[in-house]
Design goal:
The chain is of the alpha/beta class. The protein has 2 helices and 7 strands. It has helices at 15-26, 80-90, and strands at residues 7-12, 41-45, 55-60, 73-77, 93-100, 103-109, 115-120. The termini are far apart. This is Glyoxalase-like domain-containing protein.
């Protein structure tokens, strides 16, 4: 038996803003939440209706982010510099650029400070 990643869940101060940001990043639409969805499930991408792609869930929590992520998303694209520019325009913050092990990537933060990386695929 194995386990398959299904959902990346974000704890957020402003889930509505986060779901819009990540919808723009991924190019996937924000879900219409089903009637009766619990109030803390404020936003989602790819959960309703269920798709085979990785889903994103955005939950309202009272506490803010206090430390570096222990886990983060690694994304890839065809043109890293153009995509970094696009993501910064959406609200990301450019943190740093790196090149090691034959891979070049950029570290960014989403509007609530969650780090994620963007690499150019070859």
């Amino acid at each position: 038996m194995t386990a398959t990643p299904r959902t990346i869940t974000f704890d957020c101060a402003d889930p509505a803003a986060q779901v819009r940001f990540w919808s723009g990043v991924t190019g996937r639409p924000v879900d219409t939440l089903p009637e009766g969805t619990p109030a803390q499930f404020v936003g989602a991408i790819g959960m309703w209706p269920r798709s085979n792609d990785l889903a994103y869930l955005f939950l309202a929590v009272p506490e803010g982010k206090t430390a570096k992520n222990r886990m983060h998303l690694d994304l890839e694209c065809a043109d890293r510099s153009a995509e970094v520019e696009r993501l910064v325009a959406l609200g990301a913050t450019h943190v740093s650029d790196h090149s090691e092990f034959g891979i070049t990537w950029t570290v960014l933060r989403d509007p609530e400070g969650n780090e994620f990386c963007l690499a150019e695929h070859h």
